[in-house]
């Protein structure tokens, strides 16, 4: 809750900088008296909030009445696109109208300020929880990277390069770019709304591309298990394109709906971006990804130890991603706007980790001893073809 000090400060929050409060607040002022205060003279406004043990002191310049369009002796609308604190009373000199004429406006403004401060407090609490989840997702990526790095060097970097290697490496290393951006938009200082919008836009598309590359790995796995049949390739390819056209459409709508609160400009000791509004149709994107993974999981054939290993790993991966996707859908549908991206980083990290493990496990099983095959695809196809031939006999 925000308390306006007894010295008599009135907060004015403009339309363009506080998206949830899209209205202009009435403030009574006398242009002649307010205009006498020289421009650039700073004053203090005390904000006391329940989430901070120390009140935050903000210094802002006072603008002449002529520059803020205050008509004399009238109630006025102040659409200045920034937050200002208007000093009502000075050292023995009164600025603004009399208390009797300004009482209703001051009370209404104080109530609005209190509601805005409560919204700031909620945004801070939600942002803190999202930060914890983002950090845990980053730690999962880093931990998995270091424990699988020896296998990557032996099985990926030492083998002949192909399409799956490129997708594997892009999927694995692009995730760290996303982690860096996510950490910055959670811990950056004095981030403007436009900067936050750009950071969240980059994060959203990086995560979408990362999950897309993970799906390509799963498609490759299914395609190889079916002996590289053209019908399977075309079916999975067309389904992938259709799913991602719909996903991109809805993700773009979600990104365009995002709005942020400039908490860092009000309370500099708090860092990061604070989402105050976002369309909850993001759950559609997670549902599309989940549906496609379900199709891939059930589009399979069995036999041979290698294929059994692939199915085992893919089944465990699917169960994990299913639980994560369902949780994501529930959070987006039922949670507040600040929690829309709560599990996004976790979902991305799980896709990267599990799809990478599938590739590494297939290659580890296909390799005899420590020797990497010159053409892993041929080994995988040979396993599949042998299993199909044995069943046909």
UniProtKB/TrEMBL annotation:
Pfam families: DUF6533. It comes from the Eukaryota. Residues 132-176 form the DUF6533 domain. InterPro entries: DUF6533. The chain crosses the membrane at residues 168-187, 199-220, 232-251. Keywords: Membrane, Transmembrane, Transmembrane helix. This is DUF6533 domain-containing protein. The lineage of its organism: Eukaryota, Fungi, Dikarya, Basidiomycota, Agaricomycotina.
């Amino acid at each position: 809750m925000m308390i306006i000090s007894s010295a008599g400060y009135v907060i004015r929050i403009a339309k363009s900088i506080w998206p949830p409060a899209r209205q202009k607040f009435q403030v009574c002022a006398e242009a002649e008296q307010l205009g006498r205060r020289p421009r650039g003279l700073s004053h203090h406004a005390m904000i006391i909030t329940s989430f901070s043990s120390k009140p935050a002191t903000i210094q802002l310049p006072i603008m002449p009445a002529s520059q803020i369009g205050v008509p004399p002796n009238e109630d006025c609308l102040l659409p200045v696109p920034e937050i200002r604190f208007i000093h009502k009373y000075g050292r023995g000199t009164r600025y603004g109208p009399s208390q009797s004429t300004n009482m209703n406006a001051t009370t209404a403004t104080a109530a609005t300020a209190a509601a805005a401060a409560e919204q700031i407090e909620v945004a801070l609490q939600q942002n803190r929880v999202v930060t914890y989840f983002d950090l845990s997702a980053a730690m999962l990526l880093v931990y998995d990277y270091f424990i699988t790095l020896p296998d990557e060097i032996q099985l990926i970097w030492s083998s002949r390069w192909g399409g799956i290697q490129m997708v594997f490496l892009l999927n694995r290393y692009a995730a760290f770019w996303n982690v860096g951006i996510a950490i910055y938009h959670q811990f950056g200082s004095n981030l403007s709304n436009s900067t936050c919008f750009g950071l969240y836009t980059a994060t959203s598309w990086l995560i979408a591309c990362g999950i897309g590359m993970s799906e390509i790995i799963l498609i490759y796995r299914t395609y190889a298990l079916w002996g590289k049949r053209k019908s399977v390739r075309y079916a999975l390819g067309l389904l992938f394109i259709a799913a991602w056209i719909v996903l991109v459409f809805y993700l773009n709508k979600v990104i365009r709906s995002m709005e942020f609160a400039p908490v860092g400009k009000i309370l500099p000791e708090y860092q990061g971006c604070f989402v105050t509004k976002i369309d909850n149709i993001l759950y559609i994107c997670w549902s599309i990804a989940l549906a496609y993974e379900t199709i891939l999981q059930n589009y399979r054939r069995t036999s041979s130890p290698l294929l059994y290993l692939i199915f085992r790993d893919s089944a465990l991966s699917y169960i994990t991603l299913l639980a994560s996707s369902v949780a994501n859908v529930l959070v987006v549908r039922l949670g507040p706007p600040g929690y829309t991206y709560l599990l996004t980083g976790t979902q991305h990290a799980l896709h990267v980790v599990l799809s990478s493990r599938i590739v590494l496990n297939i290659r580890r099983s296909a390799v005899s001893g420590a020797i990497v095959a010159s053409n892993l695809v041929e080994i995988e196809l040979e396993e599949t073809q042998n299993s199909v031939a044995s069943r046909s006999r």
